[in-house]
Design brief:
Layout lengths: L3 E7 L2 H34 L7 E2 L12 E2 L2 E8 L7 E13 L4 E5 L3 E21 L6 E8 L4 E8 L2 H6 L3 H19 L5 E4 L6 H5 L5 E11 L16 E7 L2 E4 L10 E10 L6 E8 L7 E9 H6 L4 E7 L5 E18 L14 E12 L9 E8 L2 E2 L10 E2 L3 E2 L3 H4 L5 H20 L4 H8 L1 E5 L9 E5 L2 E12 L5 E8 L1 H12 L1 H12 L10 E9 H5 L4 E9 L5 E13 L7
Antiparallel strand pairs: 1-4, 2-6, 3-5, 4-5, 5-7, 6-7, 7-8, 7-9, 8-10, 11-14, 11-18, 12-13, 12-15, 15-16, 17-18, 18-30, 19-26, 19-30, 20-22, 20-23, 20-27, 21-26, 24-25, 27-28, 29-30
Helix pairs in contact: 1-3, 9-10
């Protein structure tokens, strides 16, 4: 965004009334979220103790008190997208609070029934209406996210009062809080977001997936005067400090520095920032303990705009305790500078600051067409890898980024929005075209290209097996992000893959030796890769600068002939943004 114009502050009575009216539907939706996402993560986190963990759906309710928004502060901004025209974004900033009278019961191994109550959530939220439209609803898309992980508190008590008296539920409470917070962060805390189109033909990647405004280079230099939590027999008391650094959903942790209250960390990292005027960085200092819980030594909450204003210089920040009192917890020394991201190539810099070619690459994998259905349970996905990668987001740069693994959909599901009569007509017309193609002996690849569908059978050897007409297109609409050093010289590789090798094995189990021989023949001739038994159908590899060009943004349809002879088209959206010289302009 280049400019921001305040449009005023308004009461939230109307919005809160709408939320209250929709609260029963939100309550029902929450049951599915808890069952599908929270329960599996709690089981994983609690190990043997959580093996039988489950929420009792019949006794689960969010309560009668809906979430409420505070005063709505509305700002009109412009989002740079790299095209001739940028996007207008109407931004609403507010605080959301939910003090619930919810009722929920959970069952744990060894604890029987446990009640969860007194839930309170509070956080700063940003709601955005994106891209003007000349017709209602007058904007093309909507986005919503928290600026940082919301504050979360609740009570946990065993249903049996005697059990509650003798059993410590702190570990249960901590695990539940951790899992719920992680789930919220993964979906609703910046840089993550909940986004949807208001107009069906709105551009997915430009509207729903904003790019970072810039990169904040952050260095935690040292800490001074920390509290001493460990008593030593032959020396003064000290601590084993380490620091957790959080910015939205992005988290880092420094190494532990042992036996000191004035540790020298020299820990440097980069943070992609979308909203520099609103985001902040939280530093939490802990004393590492092996047996007991880590001791909290202090914290500092620093606005990104304040860090940008440092201009690369060191600055001291006082630590406060858990109750936000300052004075006895010591301080940290932080160095920071700001690097705005500019679309396309930037001029060579005189003062690179040690990272002259840091670039941000956005790769949006939209869809693949012309796929042939080998088996009803075949999954398709795209793996993307780049050279020159930097692990800015604490990711393993040796591993490629990956889209979701999706199946081809039956044609019937794509016609579900038609009336029964129209659907029957469409299916009859499609079947007539398929019969005509087969009558003239057309290959599957030609049928797929001509009609946009493919016929899938359980087994080619079993002529009586059920055949299903499937769409030949998979839609991912998945954004993938990379940070590169020397980005214009980097090479990007996109591989379209499927797990048909696994499906072929299953077919062989039912279809006899013919299917097994067919699978072995494909392995011998290199049709299947040996990477986890998956098939690489097509692969594209090009230099980033050749693929994107000087403009910095491109929409491409990559074509290739798959090993089955069919032509596959992969639609992608790509944008390269390079870091400017360090400065204070956002």
């Amino acid at each position: 965004a280049k400019t921001a114009v305040g449009l005023g502050s308004y009461g939230a009575d109307f919005v809160n009334g709408m939320i209250a009216a929709c609260w029963p539907m939100v309550d029902e939706f929450a049951k599915h979220i808890v069952h599908d996402q929270i329960v599996p993560e709690v089981r994983k986190a609690m190990g043997n103790m959580g093996g039988s963990f489950t929420f009792e759906a019949d006794h689960f309710t969010l309560g009668q008190k809906p979430a409420k928004f505070d005063t709505l502060r509305i700002i009109d901004t412009i989002q740079e997208v790299g095209d001739a025209t940028n996007l207008r974004v109407m931004t609403v900033r507010t605080k959301v609070t939910w003090t619930s009278n919810m009722t929920a019961y959970a069952n744990f191994t060894g604890l029987q029934k446990v009640g969860v109550s007194g839930l309170c959530i509070q956080g700063d939220m940003v709601l955005e209406l994106v891209g003007e439209a000349p017709r209602p609803p007058f904007f093309q898309a909507a986005r919503g996210r928290f600026l940082n992980a919301p504050d979360l508190s609740f009570d946990v008590k065993a249903e049996n009062s005697a059990l509650d008296a003798v059993t410590s539920l702190d570990s249960v409470k901590d695990t539940l809080r951790q899992v719920v917070t992680e789930q919220v962060c993964a979906k609703l805390v910046i840089p993550n977001r909940m986004a949807f189109k208001l107009i069906p033909d709105a551009d997915t990647f430009r509207m729903l997936h904003p790019r970072p405004r810039g990169v904040l280079r952050l260095k935690l230099v040292r800490a001074e005067g920390l509290l001493a939590k460990d008593l030593n027999l032959f020396s003064n008391a000290s601590s084993d400090p380490f620091v957790k650094i959080t910015c939205g959903a992005i988290k880092f942790e420094t190494p532990v520095i042992y036996n000191t209250c004035s540790p020298q960390f020299d820990f440097a990292t980069f943070l992609p920032i979308e909203l520099p005027m609103d985001q902040f960085v939280l530093f939490e200092v802990f004393d590492k303990d092996v047996i007991t819980r880590n001791d909290h030594l202090g914290k500092a909450k620093i606005g990104v705009k304040d860090l940008i204003a440092q201009g690369g210089k060191e600055r001291k920040y006082q630590l406060c305790d858990a109750n936000d009192n300052v004075g006895s917890n010591g301080l940290i020394v932080v160095e920071a500078d700001w690097r705005k991201l500019q679309i396309g190539r930037v001029p060579e810099r005189k003062n690179s600051g040690g990272d002259p070619d840091l670039c941000y690459l956005f790769v949006g994998i939209a869809s693949a067409t012309g796929l042939l259905c080998a088996h009803p349970e075949t999954h398709y996905w795209v793996e993307v890898q780049c050279t020159h990668r930097q692990g800015l987001l604490a990711t393993d740069t040796s591993k490629p980024r990956c889209t979701q693994k999706l199946q081809l959909k039956p044609v019937q599901s794509t016609l579900a929005n038609l009336t029964a009569e129209k659907q029957a007509e469409a299916e009859a017309a499609l079947q007539e075209k398929l019969d005509l193609c087969h009558r003239y002996g057309m290959k599957d690849a030609d049928v797929s290209k001509l009609l946009g569908v493919t016929v899938c059978k359980e087994s080619k050897e079993d002529k009586t097996s059920h055949a299903e007409v499937m769409a030949s297109t998979v839609m991912w609409n998945r954004p993938l992000e990379f940070f590169l050093k020397g980005g214009h010289d980097a090479t990007i590789t996109l591989a379209l893959e499927c797990d048909h090798a696994h499906a072929e094995k299953r077919t062989g189990h039912h279809g006899g030796m013919a299917a097994v021989k067919g699978m072995m023949s494909k392995l011998a001739h290199g049709t299947w890769s040996d990477r986890d038994g998956c098939a690489v159908l097509c692969e594209w590899s090009e230099k980033v600068s050749d693929l994107i060009g000087s403009g910095g943004t491109t929409d491409k349809v990559l074509k290739a002939t798959a090993k089955q002879g069919n032509t596959v088209e992969l639609t992608v959206h790509m944008q390269l943004r390079a870091c400017c010289e360090p400065g204070t302009v956002v």
